[in-house]
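Hi there,

I know you've been waiting on this one. I reran it after we fixed the sequence typo, so this is the corrected version. Both the input and the resulting structure follow.
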Amino acid sequence: TKSDYQRVQQGSNTSGLLLGMLRTPVSFDNANGFDALDAFDEVSAYQFPNSTQRNYRGGGGYDNPYWITNNALGYEEVNRTFGNTKFDYKVNNWLGFGLNIGYDITSDSRKQVFEIGSRTNASGAISHDEFNTKQFDTYFNILGS
């Protein structure tokens, strides 16, 4: 199987999408007067002309949710191969042997980008993580009747 996708920041951090929404008072318009759906595509909704982020507290606190959606995406690609096979051998009508062999091999590549000016990393950052796992299982069974 192969899965790849991009996603917004999650979890409890200053660049988390939900925290940016929940920690912004209702008196501050994250969308800068634009319709909520249009604000995702309209740069002036979340960014000043000098390219700095428009957010509550003027640069401190939490990232603007629209800015996060456009500037701090994470990318992930997961490849997974798995399967098993089974062999049975019957010695007679009351005794047999079974062998099950299985495997599960996974590679997970993750890239996180923080644009310059993010609340999590103001100078910007890119991190890349690789996770690889291999699991092999063998079961030998004595079968009786």
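Quick highlight: The beta strands are 2-7, 74-92, 95-114, 125-144.

Best,
R. S.
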